[in-house]
Structure formats: C-alpha cells, structure tokens
Amino acid sequence: MPRRQMHMTGAAAAPLREALRSLRAELDVPGEFPAAVLEEAQWAAQDPRLPAEDATHIPFFTIDPPSSVDLDQALHLERRPGGGYRVHYAIADVAAFVAPGGALDGEAHRRVMTLYFPDGKVPLHPAVLSEGAASLLPDHAAPALVWRHDLDADGRVEAAEVRRAVVRSRAKLDYTGVQHALDGGNASEPLALLREVGQLREALEAERGGVSLNVPEQEVTAVDGGFVLAYRAPLAADGWNAQMSLMTGMAAAEMMLASGTGVLRTLPTAPDGAVGRLRRAAQALGIAWPHHVPYAELVRGLDPRLPKHAAFLQECTALLRGAGYTVFRDGAVPEPSVHAAVAAPYTHCTAPLRRLADRYAGELCVAVCAGQEPPEWVLAALDGLPQEMAEGARLSNTVERECVDLVEAAVLKDRVGEVFDATVIDVKEREPRIGTVHLEEPAVVGRIEAADGLLPLGERIRVRLTRADPGTAKILFAPV
C-alpha cells in the first residue's frame, strides 16, 4: 500500500510542472512509447483475439474515480435462487492484445507498472489499449477474463471459476455517486448488493484476522496561481468495492496453489520491533490500544476523518513493508505463501492494464479452469517476475515519495516563516530532536528539527515553517 496517494486537479503552475519534469528525467522514468510499440498497439486494438463466449447479456458496471478511463474491472451482483449470492467480476483481457515476445510485451516488461504523478501518469500500455480497446468502458464490447463467484448467505465463496468472454459494461460509476445512491436508498439491486456482500466480506476479513487500511488520500488543487491540499477519507463504498478485488485475488491464489504452479503476492508477519514501534505511536497519539486487542481489530475501529487516527493509519503502512511476489512450480509449497494483511493466500490478478504480474496470474487461472497446461510463454516468464515487480515497485514508491515532497513544498513555498498547528507523529529514536509532524491545515506531513531538547511525541504543538523549496523537494519545520 502506498505511503500517501496524491491526486491533482486544476492547472498546475509552471514551477511545479518543471520540477515534475526534472524528477522524471532524474529517475529515468519511461517517456513516450517507441514507434514499433505504438504501431503494434494500433494493430492489436483493431484486431484483438476475441473469445468465442459472449457474456454481453450480463449488465456489468464499473466503479472508479471520475477521471479514470483505464478500467480494469467490472462487476455484477445478484441473489442466487437457492440462497446466497453470485458475483460476476470481469477483468480486462490484456493477453487478447499483447502477443508474447512482441514489441508491446517487451515494453510492458520494461515498464512493469503504471506510474502516477500529480499531473498525469506514465502508463504500462499505450492509451489506444489501456484507455480504449482493452478498457472496460461503458457501451464498449471488450474481451475479458470473467470470474464467477458463488457465495453462501454469509458471503463465503463456495465455488469460483474464470473463463474468457466478451463483455459490455452498462455504466461507469464513481465512488461518491455510488455512496450517495446507497445512502439515499435509490440504488439498483446489483449496486445495493455491493454493500450487502461487501459488509459480509468485511466481517469475514475480521474473522480471519485480516485488515484493510483506510489511509486518507492527499488531494492537491491548483487555485489562483497557488495550491490547496486536503485529505480525502475513503468512503465505505471504496472498501466494499475493494473487497470484490480481494475476494478474486484470494480465489485465484487458492486455484494456483491447488494446481501446483503460480505466483502469489506475499507479506511476512511484521517483526515484533515494528509492532512495538506502532504501539508507541498509538500511545503518543492518544489512541487506546489495550494489549488484549489485536492490531487488526484496533485498525477497524479507527476513523480516517480524525487527524490523529489518519496519522496513525499512515504509520500502520510500515507493517506492509516486505511485500513481494513468490513463484512456485510442480506442486512445491511456496514459502511464504500467505499475505499477512489479507490473512490468507492472495495474488494480484485484477489490474492487468496497470500491473504486469496480473496478466500472468490471470492466464494461469484460466488454464486451471479449462483443465489445460499453462501457456509456455507464461511459464517462461514466471521465474523473472518477482525481480521485475520488485524493481517496478521501488521506482513507483520513489516516484510517490518524491512527488509528495515536491507538491508539499510547492503548496508552502510562499508561507515560509508562518506558524501552524501540528501533531508530532514520529521521533527518531537515536536523534530525538528530529521527527515528523502532521499539520492540521493544510494537509501536510513534514520533517521537523528542534535546535535542542526532545520533541514531544504525540503532542499538539505550534511549528514554524523554515524551508519550502520545490526545487529541492524539501520542507522543514521547527518548534515555536
């Protein structure tokens, strides 16, 4: 999970755009697609490998941010006549467009994943595919991997399968609109069932000891030549939609484990030291964490709209460090095989337009359900995937971290010398005069250095901004 997500709306000022351009160059971020890749993508968009099965009768819908057009997933929920639920979950079929060993495939392995900057993205695939022919846009027939989950009345998966089919989404919905429809009681039954099934899946997550972190997003808006930063707490609809993806990733993992070949998304259990540090942060922030209360239970009770809870949720992302990909073959039991935050075997398979590994996981599951051996091109690439994905994740995390610093510096560049209300959310153990503060307004998390003495961990203090330079991507505060 990212440290802080950031979205930008409005026209950014020239200095920030220039700083972001420099950052792209410094990190050697991929630029325009080579001509051969674009040509192959254009041909593929016009002549994809379409499956024989037609599932366009299923009234799928998508839920994404309003501006998104690279739509990986579409869903439809219904009640089963004998009780329980049926969830159809369609995933964009990237392999219908990307030929193994071709220019598109090679470029995807070079890029690994879509990179997100505040002023735009660097996509994994050319837009003619990721935002066009391969995207599950409304009123557009597209090839997909269609999962069918049959659930009991408690939301447990009784059976799952995936097959190739042509689908057509009926509507492109956004989280705010979905939440309003559900809260207002005027949602259609498939949409109303998203809440019903989502809540059941959340209860099962709690039962198995899993945890989903509702970390607030940072949103930056350009206004009158300057910038405004604010936090956006995730809506309940965000979580219910995410449960559909988690359910599919868990089903895919179990399917691959049963077949003896696959790639899992894994996360080891957090070491005691990391949990101990998190307990100290909770105490400092005034968050009660009795020793008999498990971490997952504590997190589920937090409200990301409250500043101290939001700060603690951000600290919780430290327990997600160490996530990676584990490949296994020939029935060997992988180690590790569980994602500690999911509290179950899990894999990435629901975002193939934006993440390389998902295409391979999807192909393995389709082969299992068809009773066939996995394609040779999938098996040939498996062993290299963990390293490729690790390198892609490192670049993505660096982009995210540097972008946050740049935008925060741009927001505050004209406010050096001003005093703000803040909470000290972290203090270095070996250098207790250096730490991190969470400003109440604007939505900034930055470094603080005291000239002498100790920083009061967890306390609300007044801080003065001493530096904000978008050119160096750094901000710095000092206690008043």
Set out the fold topology.
Layout (H helix, E strand, L loop, with lengths): L5 E4 L4 H13 L8 H12 L13 E4 L9 E7 L5 E8 L10 H9 L3 E3 L2 E3 L4 H7 L7 E11 L5 E17 L1 H10 L4 H20 L8 E7 L2 E7 L3 H24 L2 E5 L5 H13 L10 H6 L6 H10 L7 E5 L27 H15 L5 H7 L2 H28 L6 E9 L6 E6 L5 E5 L10 E10 L4 E6 L1
Parallel strand pairs: 1-9, 2-8, 15-17
Antiparallel strand pairs: 3-4, 4-7, 5-6, 7-8, 9-10, 11-12, 13-14, 13-16, 14-15, 16-17
Helix pairs in contact: 1-13, 2-4, 6-7, 7-11
Shape: globular
Q: Describe the main β-sheet briefly.
A: 5 strands, mixed
From the N-terminal CA to the C-terminal CA, the straight-line distance is 34 Å
SS element count, helices: 13
As a percent range, the share of helical residues equals 25-40%
Percentage of residues in strands: 15-25%
**H/E series, N to C?**
EHHEEEHEEHEEHHEEHEHHHEHHHEEEEE
Low-confidence stretches: 1-5
The rounded Rg comes to 23 Å
Estimated structural class: alpha+beta
Average pLDDT = 90
Q: Order of strands in the sheet with the most strands?
A: 2-8-7-4-3
Total strands: the figure is: 17
